[in-house]
Amino acid sequence: MAASDTTNEQECRMTVSTRALVHAFLEREFIRQVEFLAELVRVPSDNPPGDCAPAAERAHELLESLLDLEVETDVVPAPVAQANGMISATNLIVRRRFGRGGVTIALNAHGDVVPPGQGWTRDPYGAEIIDDPDHGLVMFGRGVAVSKSDFATYTWALLALLDLEKQGVPLDGVVELHFTYDEESGGNIGPKRLIEQRLSAPALAICAGFSYAVTSAHNGCLHLEVEVTGKSGHAALPATGVDALEAATDILNALYSYREALTHIRSKVPGIDAPTLNIGLIQGGINTNVVPDRVTMRLERRIIPEESPEATESQLRSLIEGAVEQRSGITVDIKRIMLAEPLQELPDAARLIIALRTHAEEEFGVAIPVQGVPLYTDARHYASAGIPTVLYGAGPKTLQEANGHGADECLRLDDLRKATAVIALTLADLLEAH
């Protein structure tokens, strides 16, 4: 037998042994993991209004009781939270070193959630579990899939590594858990703050997932507010005013023509189709008998990974201003409300993708795609800092199956266990000591 064959056989035995140890540990810990997730779901953390410090405090208590590790807290100053549209937010960081060298890997999930809304048939904060004949045990609750589930996924993946260490599996590197509470507000006082304040400097990052797929890219998003100002006048003498609503229709016509043109642009990233534009809010006028002096609209432009966010914004501004430049007495003020950059796959992300995909296909027994998604997430903040980043975590095959952001949001608990094994085994691969 060649030396290379012997090495491969040893590596195979080690992988099988590591997988068996991880499975045995997660089987023993399953009830505790589910109870942990239920406790998180039972603490409301709706954003808006964004009063998330109490949820972070409860997560802090649970983590310290589980991990026997220090949980660092980064309390976001109230004025900073308020400037980002929230009442309170606290970031949690757990760090654990294995061995003496190796890479630092961050695992980020967010604990803030969209408000429940209407249509629920179960208590959105009840963490109710049913035994479904098709899917086994299923937990219901707001945030159970997006993304409190990955608090549990990532925490038990770290616990599994600690167990591997006790079993003598050699590991080198650092695992950090980043649990933040402002994803629904843009992530600026969560992941972005952790990086900018030098509270963390990971070499790789895995962020919360919501399907079986490994997500390697996603769209960016631009929100603009457009204020069109004219002059009020009596409706009996409309010529005494300057109609802001009439001018606004010129802008709307230009934007809708532009939206149609966007359908002809195609992304090369699987899972992402074309850029989109939506005018989602419009307000204006004083009364029925008054020429409207002001109209305000808000629009959203989704930016595919191949596009430049800066060029996109510049193009939109020129389009809007050009639509009314011939109208006397009309002024237009354009404000950027938010700009979220697209997530692009950085070269070293292949290390994450290969490991995650390999283990996910083994655990789930199905082909695991690597794809982009048309939404945007906190993952972009890590990638913007030059950190190779992908999304992977607990969830059903698609976000739609979980009712993410919808009524009766749910998670199959078998998916939670399998995704935890995938993360633990991926980390073991990346931290493997040589």
Quick overview:
The chain has helices spanning 3-41, 53-67, 78-83, 149-166, 191-196, 244-262, 309-323, 349-364, 379-384, 413-430; strands at residues 71-75, 90-98, 103-110, 129-132, 136-140, 173-180, 204-207, 214-218, 220-229, 276-284, 294-303, 331-340, 370-373, 389-391, 410-412.
Please state roughly what percent of the residues sit in beta strands, choosing from under 5%, 5-15%, 15-25%, 25-35%, 35-45% or over 45%. 15-25%
Question: How many strands in all?
Answer: 15
The coarse overall form would be elongated
How many H/I helical runs? 10
Folded structure, characterized:
The chain is α/β, with parallel strands linked by helices and 434 residues long. The chain contains ten helices and 15 strands. It has a six-stranded mixed beta sheet with strand order 1-2-6-3-7-14. Strands 10-11-9-12 form a four-stranded antiparallel beta sheet, covered by helices on one side. Strands 4-5-15 form a three-stranded antiparallel beta sheet.
